[in-house]
Amino acid sequence: MAQINVLDESTINKIAAGEVVERPVSVVKELVENAIDSGAKNISIEIRGGGIDYIRVTDNGSGIERDSIPNAFLRHATSKIRSIEDLMTVSSLGFRGEALSSIAAVCDVELMTKTADSILGYRYCIRGGRELSFDEAGVAEGTTVIARNLFFNTPARRKFLKSAMTEGSYITELIERLILSHPEISFKYTVNGAVKLSSNGLRDIMSDVYCVFGREVLDTLVDVSFSSENCSIYGYVGKPETARGNRNYELFFVNKRLVRSKILSSAVEEAYKPFLMLHKFPFVILYIDIPGEQLDVNVHPSKTEIRFMEERYVYNAVFDTVTEGVTRRELIPNAIINEEKSPDKVNESVYSENDAIPVPEPFESRKIEIFRQDAFKELNDHKQEFKPVQETLFSEGFLAEENKPKHRIIGQVFGTYWIIEFENKMYIIDQHAAHEKVLFERFSKQIEAGNVISQIISPPYIVTLTAAEETVLQQNLSLFEELGFSVEHFGGCEYALTSVPAELFRLSEQDYFLSIIDDLSVNLRLHEPKQVKDRIATMACKAAVKGNTTISYAEADALISELLSLDNPYNCPHGRPTIISFTNSDLDKMFKRIV
Predict the structure, then answer these.
(1) In this structure, are residues 398 and 390 in contact, taking their beta carbons and an 8 Å threshold?
(2) Rounded to a whole number, what is the distance in angstroms from the first to the last CA of the chain?
(3) Using H for helix, E for strand and C for coil, what is the string for 8-77?
(4) What span, in angstroms and rounded, lies between the C-alpha atoms of 244 and 260?
(5) pLDDT higher for 369 or 573?
(6) Helix, strand or coil for residue 92?
(7) I need a surface site. Which of 97, 127, 432, 475 has the fewest CB within 10 A?
């Protein structure tokens, strides 16, 4: 057996540091969270070389008392908790206790701090975990921490870092999320000498969304809110056209902490499901405030994952809130897309590096108030210019019942699309997607009401089942009756279908019946609402009139009228749009009549 050695303190600190400090963004996260917990209202972050060479975080918070400065760099030292019980109710962002100790173990750290009741401040330098100097200094109230030469003493870790540009992008994303999670704090973020992001700290979320994502996103957002005794939800949900290819823009802030949660993601995605295509994810920014005792924030070391005590309640609250937001306004997408800025570039700063507005440092107190006043005026100007205006759903517009006589069906093109003129817009409807949606809604409502209309088949259709399929059928006869099937034993392993759902009569009876048998054989979960809806959506797609099929004006008029009467006529059950629109001015621009 190999000899067992007791590691020296330096090695222990470096190992511990590896658990907290993975890359430059880890350092920035810890330092900024400490600044927020200190009560700072202005925080300045500067990085060089992607944060590998230089990181500076300055705040105007409470500062650190002289006697506490060396203790702040000891392992497991923290001002956030005193006992294990405090972990369950802690409301601060950082409390692990290893942060400054771990940072100091792998880079050169310089700390300057001053409290409000102290005449002078202090400058403390520590390198690789060893104290170098501790002196009085004339510094502003608050705290500045500078970290240089990350992983200078652990080259094996340093060589696994990515390029300075990539490491810097991780930090930029972090600052963007911090701006959104703390609208009451003014952030200034500088990269290689140029201001990249700056927020005004005016508690206006829309202003921060503008700062992070740009003006185009503002036009696609709908505000939502919900409040109860144990939970409040507020924020913004994007129109379906803002959908992305991943979950990076599902932003959840629980008690001001950015978190990942399967419960929250599932609730949001289920609410958006009727509006989005497969493998598309919504753009949402939701703020959830919930009592700390109803959360477990210790699921993950970085505190980015949480567990809710009342998961079903939170799920339902989020689902209902998002559903209300995405269904209460006009969602017909405009066919003309702004080509000046692609969706992938909406996270660029509002200001370029060349025209970045000068934002005061946290210690420049007189300039801060002037900046806030100017920023408030600028914010109001932006609101006047970019406030989104949308048609309401039923009081006016294309979907209003009183406007139906004003619709003019122009005709069908390509055997698939119907063109309708209304006021100053041209609407194009996909007949297959529209019919699919109508069939889906009809059949779903019949199932929910328990009065599915059946169509008698004469003569009956005979199907032959395997022993396993026969067992599934016998166990789920009541479900088939609810779906509109009448099934009789015909002898041996054969069964007679004497009636099928009338709404899906266009289908091959055998295909529809056997597909349900297959679903039940695989997962036995067709009784769940989600599984039932998925199967109905698939069957509606197969039963709907196809593209490249000519239908009469009367049939088209009846289909369009029924589509527009639905609660959600905008998308087929699989998320594809049923309607798009062109305005008169859109066509004028395309033909260069106006520029």
Answers:
(1) no
(2) 82
(3) CHHHHHHHHHHHHCCCHHHHHHHHHHHHHHCCCCEEEEEEEHHHCCEEEEEECCCCCCHHHCHHHHCCCC
(4) 17
(5) 573
(6) coil
(7) 475
Domain pair 215-343 / 434-543, same fold: no
Report the pLDDT averaged over residues 496-503: 83
Q: Residues 537-569, buried b or exposed e (16+ Cβ, 10 A)?
A: bbbbbbbbbeeeeeeeeeebeebbebbbebeeb
Name the strand (E) or helix (H) holding 130: strand 130-137
Spell out the SS3 assignment of 431-472.
HHHHHHHHHHHHHHHHHHHCCCCEEEEEEEEEEECCHHHHHH
215-343 maps to CATH 3.30.230.10: yes
Q: What is the CATH number of domain 9-198?
A: 3.30.565.10
Written as six digits, the tokens of 544 are 């709907």
Q: Rounded to whole angstroms, how far apart are CA atoms 397 and 410?
A: 18
pLDDT for 448 beyond 80? no
Torsion angle defined by CA atoms of residues 442, 447, 453 and 459, in that order, rounded to the nearest 10 degrees: 110
Q: How many residues does the chain have?
A: 595
Question: What type of residue is 355?
Answer: D
Contacts of 189 (CB under 8 A, 6+ apart): 44, 45, 46, 172, 175, 195, 196, 197, 198
Q: Give the other-Cβ count within 10 Å of 81's Cβ.
A: 16
582 SS3 class: strand
CATH code that applies to domain 434-543:
3.30.1370.100
How crowded is residue 587: how many other Cβ atoms within 10 Å of its Cβ? 15
Angle at 294 between CA 293 and CA 298, to 5 degrees: 80
β-strands 250-254, 284-289 pairing? parallel
Element (H, E) at 224: strand 221-227
Q: Name residue 14's amino acid.
A: K
Amino acid found at 483: L
Q: What is the 3-state secondary structure (H, E, C) of 358-404?
A: CCCCCCCHHHHHHHHHHHHHHHHHHHHHHCCCCCECCCCCCCCHHHH
Mean pLDDT of 496-520: 72
| Domain residue spans of the chain | 9-198, 215-343, 434-543
Q: Are 496 and 487 in contact (CB under 8 A)?
A: yes
Using a 10 angstrom Cβ sphere, with 0-12 exposed, 13-18 middle and 19 or more buried, the burial of residue 125 is middle
Residue found under tokens 């920023």: 375
What share of the chain in percent tops pLDDT 70? 73
Q: Residue type for 186, please?
A: S
Confidence of residue 346 (pLDDT cuts 50, 70, 90): very low
Token digits for 528? 């769940």
Residue 279 neighbours by CB distance under 10 Å: 9
Average pLDDT over residues 448-459: 82
Top-confidence range, 64-78, 256-270, 360-374, 402-416: 256-270
pLDDT, tens digit (0-9, with 9 covering 90-100), for 85-125: 444 444 445 433 457 888 998 999 999 999 999 999 999 99
Per-residue tokens: 338:
């702004």
